[in-house]
From TrEMBL:
HAMAP family referenced in this protein's UniProt entry, alphabetically: DeoC_type1
InterPro entries: Aldolase_TIM, DeoC, DeoC/FbaB/LacD_aldolase, DeoC_typeI
Pfam families: DeoC (PF01791)
EC number: 4.1.2.4
Keyword Translocase among record annotations: no
Protein name: Deoxyribose-phosphate aldolase
Length: 217
């Protein structure tokens, strides 16, 4: 797949979610994001609000990284994040629901957050490395029914691993063309980024954004 550097940059959520990140680190992230021309920055909700330049979207996370929070807590966290400047929210599903094939509960959990932030872009993190293809597919469909805008592979924090081309392909087969697909976790170079896009990803979560873009300079 052939993309210009500028076009690839617009796929990227430039991400800093390490628990030790300071306000100075976040300010540095925003400066890097502006210089790289990426689509957004993604920061922890406690770091909001941030001073982002015009044209740079602000994303955050909720129920992160475990997804085991009560739905009411996720909804409240998302609503607070949007009220303090987040344009997009990346929520983590309750993995136990997915593993137990309780997909109505997965849908209900997502819907609680959707209802709390009706005007924000909502991305649903599935933690695909933990799930079977069938579970990924059914979670994608639950996210679609609940009104999500994107499904996303991974938090980047789970020991089972991050994004894979295969997981993106499964997600694309389930909801591609109707929902966006965000690949996140372990994308550290241009070739990997392009492979994810070729498989159907429409957004990339990257902390190594400069390295990802360097291959097209």
């Amino acid at each position: 797949m052939t993309l210009t550097r500028a076009r690839l940059a617009q796929y990227i959520d430039h991400t800093l979610l390490t628990p030790e990140a300071t306000p100075a680190d976040v300010a540095e992230l925003i400066g890097e994001a502006a210089g790289l021309g990426v689509y957004s920055v993604c920061v922890s909700p406690s770091r909001l609000p941030v001073a982002a330049p015009a044209g740079l979207k602000v994303a955050t996370v909720c129920g992160f990284p475990s997804g085991a929070h009560h739905s009411h807590i996720k909804a409240a966290e998302a609503a607070l994040a949007v009220s303090t400047g987040a344009d997009e929210v990346d929520m983590v599903i309750n993995l136990s629901f997915a593993l137990e094939h309780e997909f109505e509960a997965v849908e209900s959990d997502i819907r609680a957050v959707r209802d709390a932030v009706p005007h924000a872009v909502l991305k649903v993190i599935l933690e695909t490395a933990v799930l079977s293809d069938e579970q990924i597919t059914r979670c994608c469909r639950a996210a679609e029914r609940a009104g999500a805008d994107f499904v996303k592979t991974s938090t980047g924090f789970h020991p089972a691993g991050g994004a894979t081309v295969h997981a993106v392909e499964v997600m694309h087969a389930a909801v591609g063309g109707r929902l966006g697909i965000k690949a996140s976790g372990g994308i550290r170079d241009t070739a990997t980024a392009l492979a994810m896009i070729g498989a159907g990803a429409t957004r990339l979560g990257c902390s190594a954004s400069a390295a990802v873009l360097a291959g097209l300079e």
